[in-house]
Here is the input.
Amino acid sequence: MSTEPIKAVDSQDMETYLASLGVLDEVLKGNCRCAMCDKPVTLKTISCLYPENGQVMFVCDSAICVESLMKARRKYDA
Here is the structure.
């Protein structure tokens, strides 16, 4: 995983940020899914995103999915 600084994006700026990553249209079409539960993500349900193998990965706002990501990250960093 990248060691670049973490970027925080306010929900009001999410569309602009996703557009800068080239994924806004895919999110709006419902083509992007949570990396943890595989449910579609929307602008309102994106909790976080991260890079993996050159792709933008999304995590929805489910507490279970966010915790799963944190556990995976701790395991990766160990």
Observations:
- The CA atoms of residues 33 and 41 lie 5 Å apart.
